[in-house]
Amino acid sequence: MKQTSTTLILSEGKTLTYVIPIVFCAIAAIISFVLFWPLGVILAIICISLALVESGLEFNSGTMEYRRFKSVFGTTWGSWVKIKDPDSFHLRLSVESHSYRTYTMGTSPTYYGNGAATSKSITYDVQVLTKTDQWVDIYEFSSYKLALKLVKHLSEAGSIEVVDHVALKLEENHQKRMNRRR
Predict the structure, then answer these.
(1) pLDDT (tens digit, 9 = 90+) per residue, 13-63?
(2) What is the CATH number of the domain that holds 91?
(3) Spatial CB neighbours of 127, under 8 Å, sequence gap ≥ 6
(4) What is the total count of domains within the chain?
């Protein structure tokens, strides 16, 4: 994390955003090594570069602008977005469940059950509520620690209300547990 006068840079690191292009590039590189090795070397360098892409958020609290960025070898890109008429900032927990079917060779789904497996993705979403009652998603963090850094920066920056719904829910759950013990 780097912080200048009003700009906060939060890097999530190498998130492997480009996994599918990396796989296709690696397959093409392996084939190219056999057929025409200089092309294979170039494709291998491209695969490594794609794997080294870092992502994150840059937020300027002075101008109320943010950008989701990608960075590789120190070169950063991403377009700046201006937040118009912010009323309050909110940090929320987002849980998405995905279910998919799994079958093994030679098994019947009716005999062994439905074969459904589920996976969950948890993100910490920072949103802004504008004075025109519009919700704008700023960023979906995979780390609560990084989301808290942004929330702290926003609360130190000025007069706009910041609500940490995750901390409020944790406190509510703590109070419920304490009441059950009595």
Answers:
(1) 887 778 888 899 899 999 998 888 889 899 999 988 888 888 889 998 888
(2) 2.30.29
(3) 89, 90, 91, 92, 135, 136, 137, 138
(4) 1
